[in-house]
Design a protein that fits this description.
The protein is mainly α. It is built from 20 helices and no strands. It has a domain of 82 residues: Serine Threonine Protein Phosphatase 5, Tetratricopeptide repeat (Alpha Horseshoe), CATH 1.25.40. Helix 2 crosses helix 3.
């Protein structure tokens, strides 16, 4: 008899309780269960670790096995969003295989990333009308009100969600608002608290390195990178941050070699392409810069074809 049922796993995924879903999936894999929902868990785990191309592919495998799997469709759209593939993400978000409810949350995320706070509020409210317990949607709503409208009550609500509900999403939005308002020390403190709340989540550590980089504290950023646990240092996005730090500290040749390695490993991920071309411009390697752009267009031709096909289907 299975210790965890597929029904329990599916229920957990539909509530977007990712850590618990990943734990269940590991138990099912150990017990020899093979089902499309396990690929959904793979996608969730890869997304949690910022291995976004792997997350995208795992979600697509799940959708190939079950085209009606809306959780997989949502994860695919989220991975494309975070990879910087905005056009592809928009096609996925507006596709028929994403549930109308989840579509509001995905739109709210995209609007917040684009600093479109009025749209963020609208979509977050729509999502909360159907899923009032969503901490992420509550965090998006209050952050948009605080940053966009300077509403102090919304800042207090974010602080409450972070302190009482231990919501990492609320912590990130609180950090973002503090950072935008120039309170860097308070923002760093919030990130440190996020790390303590969930040591398995690489994002607070990566953002802390980013804050040091953006404020010109390159040596502190390098120290923070070296202090990051090895399982996080090996993640592609962590190495991408390291490549930026190498370039900023004058080690352009080493930075370029690492960027090429990352870019060739995940050519669909816009983040790797942007940093590679940035390093090449700093080195004034214009022939390599042109080559990288051409290579990116060639390597992502399948994505472009898929985008065109999906667009034509919707037309």
């Amino acid at each position: 008899m299975l210790n965890v049922s597929l029904k329990e796993l599916v229920s957990c995924l539909q509530r977007e309780e990712w850590p618990e879903a990943i734990r269940m999936a590991k138990i099912l894999r150990e017990e020899g269960v093979d089902a499309p929902w396990l690929d959904v868990c793979f996608a969730a785990e890869f997304r949690h670790k910022s291995q976004l191309q792997e997350a995208l592919h795992a979600a697509e495998r799940a959708l190939k096995a079950d085209p009606s799997n809306r959780v997989a469709a949502s994860l695919r759209a989220s991975a494309a969003q975070e990879m910087g593939q905005k056009n592809l993400a928009e096609v996925f978000i507006e596709g028929d295989d994403v549930s109308p409810t989840i579509r509001h949350l995905l739109r709210a995320r995209a609007a917040f990333d684009a600093t479109d706070y009025p749209r963020t509020r609208v979509e977050a409210v729509r999502f909360l009308s159907e899923v009032p317990s969503s901490l992420e949607a509550q965090s998006l709503l209050h952050a948009a009100r605080w940053i966009g409208n300077k509403t102090k009550e919304s800042r207090k609500e974010l602080e409450r969600l972070f302190e009482e509900q231990h919501s990492i999403q609320a912590g990130f939005k609180l950090f973002f608002g503090l950072y935008l308002n120039g309170d860097v020390s308070a923002a760093i403190k919030v990130l440190s608290q996020c790390i303590d709340l969930d040591p398995t989540d690489p994002w607070p550590r990566l953002r802390l390195i980013g804050v040091y980089e953006e404020t010109g504290k390159i040596e502190q950023a390098l120290i923070a990178y070296q202090e990051t646990p090895s399982e996080f240092r090996d993640l592609p996005f962590t190495q991408l941050n390291y490549a930026r730090l190498l370039a900023l500290s004058g080690k352009l040749g080493e930075a370029e070699r690492l960027c090429w390695k990352l870019f060739r490993g995940s050519p669909e991920d816009m983040r790797f392409f942007r940093v590679l071309t940035w390093v090449l411009r700093k080195r004034r390697m214009w022939h390599k810069w042109v080559y990288a752009i051409g290579l990116f267009m060639w390597l992502t031709r399948d994505t472009t074809k898929r985008l065109k096909t999906e667009t034509e289907k919707q037309a």
